[in-house]
Write a structure and sequence with these properties.
single chain; 204 residues; mainly alpha; Four Helix Bundle (Hemerythrin (Met), subunit A); 80% helix; 0% strand
Length: 204
């Protein structure tokens, strides 16, 4: 299934010159990973404290783009500049889960305050998509990035939701439906990733 993740090589090519300069300056992959997590937690706090003020919602797409850039940079520093480590692996995987929760749960709670259980369930399902992806490695096969609701796809989806909620008088049922759709897409992604890992393991 084609997802936005397929654009990653082109995105990395744009960042490669800057990554080289960062490596030469002594910046490490783990530092970049932690910076992405701090950025996400910080903006999630802004969304929470302001109860979804327009500037906080409109800033979310910018934060998500910066986070994606940082995520790409840390991976390139690790792979292309000899900085891969076990600590980096753990930071990367746990950082993604923490960052998603820090950004998306506050967003869902402020735009759909009448559906906290749905928001919490969706946040858990999003975390499960990343767990399902990394479990492939634990089973001896590749890390899975199957869609339809991978990290990049989620970023675009929730960016649209945040901007729409900030600028348009959306009825509550529309927002709740959008969150329910995110839940369904997350669960489908879990199934796809686990199924793909099992097929790969069976083929081996």
């Amino acid at each position: 299934m084609v997802t936005i993740y397929a654009l990653k090589p082109a995105f990395q090519a744009l960042l490669r010159p800057a990554v080289g300069r960062l490596a030469a300056a002594g910046v490490t992959a783990n530092q970049v990973t932690v910076a992405a997590m701090v950025l996400s937690i910080g903006w999630g706090a802004v969304i929470t404290v302001t109860t979804g003020a327009a500037f906080a919602l409109l800033g979310l797409p910018v934060v998500l783009l910066l986070r994606m850039a940082l995520n790409a940079v840390d991976g390139m520093l690790a792979r292309e500049h000899g900085q891969a480590s076990r600590l980096g692996f753990f930071l990367n995987e746990m950082g993604d889960i923490a960052s998603d929760a820090a950004l998306y749960l506050p967003l869902m709670l402020v735009v759909a305050p009448s559906a906290p259980l749905l928001a919490a369930t969706t946040a858990v399902a999003i975390a499960l998509t990343e767990m399902a992806g990394v479990l492939g490695r634990a089973a001896g096969v590749a890390r899975r990035y199957d869609g339809p609701f991978g990290k990049s796809d989620r970023a675009v989806y929730f960016s649209i939701l945040a901007v729409a909620a900030a600028l348009l008088p959306l009825p509550p049922r529309v927002i709740v439906t959008a969150i329910a759709a995110a839940l369904a897409l997350s669960l489908a992604t879990v199934v796809n990733r686990l199924s793909a890992a099992l097929r790969e393991a069976a083929g081996d």
